[in-house]
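Report of the visiting student (M.T.), summer placement. My assignment was to run the structure pipeline on a short list of targets and document each run. The first record concerns Major facilitator superfamily (MFS) profile domain-containing protein.
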Amino acid sequence: MFWRDIKNEPKEVLNWRLWVSTIVFGLMGAARGLDEGTISGTVKHPSFIKQFGLEDPTKTESQLANLKSNITSMVQIGCIGGAILGFLVNDKIGRIKSYRLMLIIWLIGVIISITSFHGVGQLYAGRFIAGLGVGMTSVVCPTYAVEVAPANVRGLCACMYSGSVYLGVMIGQFANLGTTIHIGDNDRNQWVIPTSVQIMWAGIFFIGSFFTIESPRWLYKIGRNEEASSALSRIRNLPEDHPYVVWEVNQILTQVNAETEKLKFWVALKELFTTYWYRMLICILIQILGQWSGANSVTIYAPTWFELVGVDTDLDQMKLTAGFGTVKFVASLVCAIFLIDALGRKRSLYTGIFLQLFALIYVTCFVAKGGTQAAANGAIAMLYISGIGWALGFNSIQYLINSEIFPLSVRSVATAFIMAFHFANQYGNSRALPPMNVTMGDWGALAFFSCISFLGLLFAFFMVPEPAGHSLESIEELFSLPWYKIAHYKFKEATLEEKEAKLADVQTQHVERA
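After the run finished, the structure tokens were exported:
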């Protein structure tokens, strides 16, 4: 179905302008990944531990766990504010200017962090400010991707963001590995250099933003119709009077005109919890179940988890952590390119959750009971499999579905609210794990994550809809059904002849109006 639908699209639609724009926005998921990848190893570097007192003998085990989790999770606190800030500017100044603003904020935060010399106060401030920029990416980038992408590659374009999270994780973890090998334990550059990679990334993509095209849907929304038509024509690589472009414009304007009165913030917010309550419920549950399934904790505290399954030296932990980041990145690429549109959102999600659940159960049993070296090697492999499951499942959908199931009038505010909730959950999860390991025991935390993953499996089957391959505007048809029918509703697939007839009809209407 997927490849046949692609062939039915005009060949000009998949062009270099589309790919440049979606890559520039999509690869900014790496902002979050670079932080997660670097901080996971940074808190293990002897130079960082010494500078910020992570092994202070005057502090209790609980106090040290709290200090470590505060440093690690400070970016997530900033991300909550960043998601809200992203909404406030995204509809006000546009997608591209919002993108540049978030890069500047992120850059300032990173510079403040790496210039911290005494105490944790400046480090906290820098990581919080960096988090504001990182949080903005979760609103600005997926929204842009789903707005400019043709329906049949929307999953691929939007999943560049979620996939690039693990590109950033991989780069950050390999940077940590490199400084562990080549820089002495008493040199603060051991943690400063990996963190500084974020500065280079921000600079490269700030330049890249000047080669992107503004979202036509946003331009139509604010009434700049001529500019919007020109932008859509350029990004589709088709003339403005081409039937495909005319048809898409007609769909967008129909929805924009129907929603004119819903553009004010408080009206849009009210709509989220009345008209769109079931969509909000789906997205909120994705965030809760995804974050508390434990996969994010495994990423942020990866060296600690490898230590639990018998990997003793810091260098070996860093090597396995770098490999773990690579596996998640490759898995996310495979999912984005081959699965999320072809297999669909729903089947991708519950396949990924099943893999994650299976792996977590094995690791839980091993940590609880111990075993042979072969069993320990199996536990290491299962941590990798849990990462593959996460990349295929919750990670592939947690940014995409937020941006594609809401109509244009409330898309930014919905995405902002959900991503603020996402980062609040991520903060709670990363903040809670060290104390959880102290109070519940290592296997107790893993058992908790396994139970949440099982609930996620039920949720994926009974509640998650399938919007793959359909225009953003046509998804309204899905949610006009009673809530209990939505998860298993199948769109009637249009034949090639029906699509051509629709395009010809729109073209005729366009000529008659002219």
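Residues 90 and 266 are 16 Å apart (CA to CA). The chain is about 75% helix and 0% strand. I thank the supervising group for their guidance throughout the placement.
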